[in-house]
Amino acid sequence: MTVLLQADNIAKHFGGIRALKDVSLTINAGEIYGLIGPNGAGKTTFFNVITGLYQRDGGDIVFAGQPLHVESPHEVTQAGIARTFQNIRLFAEMSALENVMVGRHLRSKGSVIGAMLRTPAVRAEEAAIKTKALELLAYVGIAGKAEVRAASLSYGDQRRLEIARALATEPKLLALDEPAAGMNATETAGLRALIEKVRADGTTVLLIEHDVKLIMGLCDRVAVLDYGEKIAEDVPAVVQKDPRVVSAYLGVPYEQ
Amino acid sequence: METFIQQLINGLTLGSIYALVALGYTMVYGILGLINFAHGEVVMIGALVALAVYKALAATLLPPLLILLVGLCVAAAVCMALGWAIERIAYRPLRNAPRLAPLITAIGVSIVLQQFAMLFWGRSYHSVPALLPDTSYDVLGARISAVQIVIMLAAAASMAGLIALVQRSKLGRAMRATAEKPEVAALMGVDANRIVALTFVVGSALAALAGVLVSANYSIAHYQMGFLLGLKAFTAAVLGGIGNIGGAVLGGVLLGIIEAMGAGYIGDLTGGVLGSHYQDIFCFLVLITVLVFRPSGLMGEKVSERA
């Protein structure tokens, strides 16, 4: 099994608050890796650090065999990490299709001069971007909504659109920040099928979730954060019996 | 009636130029939330560079239209480089500074450019040779000159091109994405610095065109010509709704018409007390009225979207 992301002793503090205290974890290629913990445990902070939104204060990240430099977020995207947001952050004024097309930005060429002159090469590329974006909309199950303004989509469809936009960057690692938040049971089941499909097609998934049933049923391995520290990392069956996890997060032993 | 049509033609000419310049203000504001007060000076540099090219080529006996085109191309190239440099040197280091800092810097850049132009080209008014045919046509009793037709067509074509670029190209999508949610656009792989730089470059190219057109219209160029023009274009951008590209076009054309109508009728309306040289007051009346009653402008951007 190859390691896709190796995080060693990641530290992040905000003023006097140590949001992440030397967190180390390993994500293998091809797995669905869950990150859970109580509110404020540092899950989203960890996400923001590995996706370049925050600069880390300590530690090393090796991604796909290369040290990950997070000077700016677009370099992280270039390296192959894409994410969605806990609070949906689509380009609200653009159509669903255009949102996904923005995600193709890095994976296409096209110069400014070409764009102004609309050369045949640029037109062909635009067409290719559009075709790929339409495929991705179909992939996440919202093919019929291509021309709908992102802000007008239903909540579940907005979540799906965020996933399509992230997939458009052709990530090796897709990081989903609470994708099931606010979803009903049917939508969650659909989301679960989608995440499994993404993994089956070769993309590793990192998942933050509060829906314990979803995490335990879906993930190959789970890490648990509490007060900025990793208190467990193992397969779900072991993690959910870990006494520290139970007392910090689960409350009572989870029964399938 | 002739006065009305004549002033409408004059207003549309003037408005086309305002709109071209207003686009530069509105594009930068849309993406950075910054009023680039140096933009008017870029127009001035464009006009003076083009004039230098006209003078250099005057003796070559090239066709006047070709000289005009060469002048425009050189002015556009210089202004694009200037716009890029202004962003890189003056604004990028202040990207995360409080909003007042880049605003004051913009005024500083404006002064630097004006003084540079004064040292380089002198304080005098330069007359700009007429490179377009000196013909005019009769429209319902009013006159429209070839220069005016060229100004309207050139402005309309470049604005249509810009709107197509923003709405339909990859670069335009990246611009809109960066304008709406810069950090998310970056996470989708859009290099914000590059997009911002390109926004300045595109805006400066339009400014160069505006400089060439405005100097052709008045046959005059001067190191201070960018100041009032810049303020008026800024007013046009505010009138249309700053940050909104369609709004800049609408605001520019409307402001041009308001000014021309004001200049045409102010004498009659005040019984001759105020003459047409008071035309500049209309622009600022519009600015104050808009800021008081509809700060978001006619096609105002949704302020709530910008957090």
The neighbouring-strand order within the major sheet of chain B is 1-4
Strand line-up of the largest beta sheet of chain A: 6-7-8-3-9-10
Mean pLDDT, all residues of chain B: 91
Structural class of chain A: alpha/beta
Query: What summary fits the major beta sheet of chain B?
Result: 2 strands, antiparallel
Sheet with the most strands, sense and barrel status of chain A: 6 strands, mixed
Spans of chain B of at least 5 consecutive residues whose pLDDT stays below 50 are 303-307
Q: Name the chain pair whose interface involves the most residues.
A: A-B, 39 and 28 residues
**What is the helical fraction of chain A, as a range of percent?**
25-40%
Task: Write down the overall mean pLDDT of chain A.
Answer: 87
Counted beta strands of chain A: 10
Query: What's the CATH topology label of chain B?
Result: ABC transporter involved in vitamin B12 uptake, BtuC
- Structural class per helix/strand content of chain B? mainly alpha
Relative helix content of chain B:
over 70%
**How many H/I helices of chain A?**
10
CATH class of chain B: Mainly Alpha
